[in-house]
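Complex 97.
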Amino acid sequence: MHTCSTIKPGQTCIFMKKSGCAYNGGECHPVVESCQECGNIEDFPGGNFCRVFADPAQKWNPGPCNMSTNGNGKEEKKDSTKKLNPLKASKRAQGRA
Ligand code: SF4
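Predicted structure with iron/sulfur cluster bound:
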């Protein structure tokens, strides 16, 4: 691993090669709107970038990002867990009979 010389200077990175950054486009991609308020956003000289992922847009497509700390995109998940488990529902019905 080599030290980044583009977006995150001083950080070691698996994409950094002797010949330069081997990531798609030759550098990390900035955070996207869905990343807002995430604790993994870091302010680098070139703007706001993710500490964990080189391309945040990819992590939200399809979303939500599995490392986000902001809870964005989690609403739909909460709703689905509220649905009644069919197995439990049938057991409950049997108990009543
Ligand atoms: S961890 Fe996910 S949500 Fe947070 S900044 Fe990185 S890509 Fe965005």
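The chain has one domain: 2-72.
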